[in-house]
Amino acid sequence: MHTRLLSVVCCQLFPILLSPLSLCYHQLMSFGPRPTMRLGPTLTPMVKYLMIACAATGLLQVLSPGRDIEVIFGLTPYAVISKLFLWQIVSYLFLHGGFGHLFWNMVPLWMFGSELERYWGGKEFLRFFLITGIGAGLLSIAVQPFSLIPIIGASGAIYGILMAYGLMFPERLVYLYFLFPVKVKYFVAFLGIVTFISALSSPGGPIAHMAHLGGMVFGFLYMKGLLSPSAVRQSYQRWKLKQLRKKFKVYDSQRRKQKEKEDDFWIN
């Protein structure tokens, strides 16, 4: 009961915490004598394209009759597994459940995503956005493979962006309501703990907590270099080398035993 209450309260507080009217950055600039405070970064190209894509898809949702778009392009775990609707693992990221859902996903995409794109470049940021979003969807499918309820929204990728921002700029401050300074690392850690508790307490609720948790997990793995093609290839090569070593040890031990038998035979 307590964990469910915490989940509901924090889900209501999350949009407030990320509100552009209540959160600003406090950065220590290495080339200036004073720290600078700003409402948010300038909009970068890839973030702008993603926001336009989400807004355009939202408009199509409003104009289309019924829920055909959500059923076809939302992430339905059972449909992905049984009917191989694999495109849903990507398309669900651009659908949202109304203006509020869209708005509160686009705000952190702008505020934190633009900063990451400025450091990584547009292609790398898009790759990160898709990998964390797809990872969030895959975790949701793994936990509830027979669910018939479509999952929509870019929240999984947004939580991955928050994780990356916390790892890259842990000492930066965010001012909640312009009054309360909180370091980004503590802010992200708090969100991660709440998301984990929420995912365990209400996995089948109306809010896709498991997708949020998956986004953070895949964001962490990506930032640690465990999801890049080179890292995957190196891990496979290490595994293969380990298997060869095991085979060599078995073969070597068998050769030793055979040699001992032969030695014993000639000695006798």
What report would you give on this structure?
The protein is mainly alpha-helical and 268 residues long. The protein folds into two domains: 2-227, Rhomboid-like fold, CATH 1.20.1540; 229-268. Helix content is 68%, strand content 6%. The chain contains eleven helices and four strands; from the N terminus they run αββαααααααββααα. The chain has helices at residues 2-17, 45-63, 68-73, 77-82, 88-91, 99-120, 122-143, 155-168, 184-201, 209-223, 229-267; strands at residues 23-27, 36-38, 173-176, 180-183. It has a four-stranded antiparallel beta sheet with strand order 2-1-3-4. A hairpin with a 3-residue loop joins strand 3 (173-176) and strand 4. Helix 8 runs parallel beside helix 10. The protein is globular. The termini are far apart. 33% of the residues are buried. Residues 1-22 and 26-35 have low confidence and may be disordered.
List keywords for this structure.
4 strands, 4-stranded antiparallel beta sheet, Rhomboid-like fold, single chain, 268 residues
- State the end-to-end distance: 78 Å
Main β-sheet: number of strands, strand sense, barrel status?
4 strands, antiparallel
Strand order of the largest sheet: 2-1-3-4
Rg result: 24 Å
Mean pLDDT: 79
Shape: globular
CATH architecture of the largest domain: Up-down Bundle
**Which structural category fits the helices and strands?**
mainly alpha
- Please give the count of helices: 11
CATH superfamily of the largest domain: Rhomboid-like
Q: Tell me, what is the CATH class of the largest domain?
A: Mainly Alpha
